[in-house]
Each structure stands twice: as C-alpha cells, then as structure tokens.
Amino acid sequence: MHPAPSFPLLRTEEDDAYDGIPVRFALQRKIIQLATAYMGKVPFLRTISFLESNGIEQEKWEESQLWHLDFYYTHRLPALWVYLSDVENTAQGPFTYLPAEASRRVKKSLMPRRVLDEEIDASGLAGEIKEITGRRLTCFMVDNTRIYHLGSRMGKGERRSVFMTHFVDPVGEKDWVKGGSIPEDEKLLVSRG
User: Fold this and answer.
1) Residue 72's Cα: distance from chain center in Å?
2) pLDDT in tens, 47-71
3) pLDDT digit string (tens) for 137-191?
4) Alpha-carbon span 54 to 6, nearest angstrom
5) pTM of the predicted structure, to 2 decimals
6) CB under 8 Å to 110, separation ≥6 — which residues?
7) Cα separation, 178 vs 16, whole angstroms
8) Radius of gyration (Cα) for the chain, nearest Å?
9) Terminus of the chain with fewer CB atoms < 10 Å: N or C?
C-alpha cells in the first residue's frame, strides 16, 4: 500500500492560536474585505490547513483528484489558497477547475459524487478546463461549492504544499481559534463569545 497523495502537513495546536502567524495571515483586512464582499456579510474563519501532495505511482485518479464540488451547509464557501511551493505546470498539481458557467453544465445526480474525466469530455467541457499556476506564494480565492474542481494530480516525484483557509457564514459555527486577547473588531471573525 502506498502513502496517500495528500495529507495535513505541519499542523500543530499553535496554528490555531489567535496571535499565531496562520490566523493573523488569514485575518488580514484585505482578505476579510474580499470574503465579506463575496459573501455579502462578515464571514467566520472556519479552518486553516497546511496540505502537502506528493506525486506517487497511481493507476487511476481518486478522491479529490476527480472532479467534484465541495458541500457545506452555508450558501457560499470562499477558500483562500496560497501555494507554498512553485506550481508552474500540470505535473506540479495545480488547482484545476471549470468556470461557474461550465460547471452548471456538468450532469448532476441526486447525491454528491465524483465525476470522471470521460464525463467532462463527453459533456463537451474539456476546452473549458482552467489551471491556476504560479510561483511560491501565489494566492487566490475560490468557492469550491460553485465550481467543479480537482487537485493533487501530481507527476511522480513531484511535491506541492499549500496553505488554505475557509470562510463561512457564522451561523452555527463553533469557536476553534485559541488563546490571546481578541480585539472587539475581530471577535465576529473567530469567536462566538
């Protein structure tokens, strides 16, 4: 059995500290303004993740390497991505997606499922596929609930590292950011209390 192509990397309790670099980075005013403009309300910082994908010998793509939509109870789910390694070509596993209009043309099913490349081709959507490439520290924000996407299709021996955060509607969310004195103007972003 081979190791999974994706797994959390460098995840420690300190990553969830209010005064730690990951949380402070995600709470930058311009990022919050962008998420707020997209959501139409002040968002709640839901998660912070460090992920590493490794190119291994694979007979077929699986899990998040297949086309899919993310599902969450909120209407919109903007995610901020930051490449922590260069992702300048297809072998380095760029975030790959179908724009919203093309995503609406993917054949839906009653239950969420993974979609094969052959289905995208048969739908005439192969020409609509886009990749986000860039050097280390390239940042972008996407809503994975609205666009079919895939990732971590790595060439053998390649490695990709990313930092990712999700912003959600604050209703029903639970605190996860820990420690530190949270200023009043940021409490709604990370704390229910």
Assistant:
1) 13
2) 888 888 888 888 888 888 999 998 7
3) 999 999 988 999 998 899 999 999 999 999 988 776 666 666 666 666 666 677 6
4) 7
5) 0.84
6) none
7) 6
8) 17
9) N
